[in-house]
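We modelled the chain as a single entity of 208 amino acids. Its sequence is:
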Amino acid sequence: MNTVITIGRQFGSAGREIGEEVAAYFGIKCYDKELLTRAAKESGFCEEMIQNHDERPTSSFLYNLVMDTYSFGYNASSFVDMPISHKVFLAQFDTIKKIASEGPCIIVGRCADYALADYKNVVNLFIYGDDATKVKRIMEKYNLTESKARDMIIKKDKQRQSYYNYYSSKKWGRADSYDLCINSSVLGVEGTVKLIVQYVEDFEKRNS
């Protein structure tokens, strides 16, 4: 096993759970929130700050500001002036690359597919689901009413989408941004795990 798997996911699609089961099958690590802890350690930011900016975009005014500083190269003074959300993003970006270069693993969310665009041994997945299945899962998981669960899903997905579209050059949830998109509602968690395992094993054979 030499593959790094990235998983983009709709909220409520069981993306993380699926990632953890695939990781258990291959005997590799699955990074989700663990990535934040590590990014905090390696960047010197406090973990709370990294969590506050986790998969949340900022306004485009700040974006332009940063892109200006980028055109002068990545030097110390421009980094100082950079909005905190961008520093946090870059800290995560660096951590994702470090983790991927240490060996096979699974990284959930956080534009990992974009961070690892130059790596040849990466499979990029996107997991989505039917509304009814996602709402039911979120209602059970967080003990919410149907309308609260629905609102939470819309809000979370909006955040993830704008974060991804903002920092990457691709579109969140669109088939051509990934190698494989799976509707976990059709196969369930176990079936989706099986499908991913098969896909990754075939990918390894082709690239060995």
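As a brief sanity check on the tokenised model: The two ends are 10 Å apart (CA to CA). The chain has a mean pLDDT of 88.
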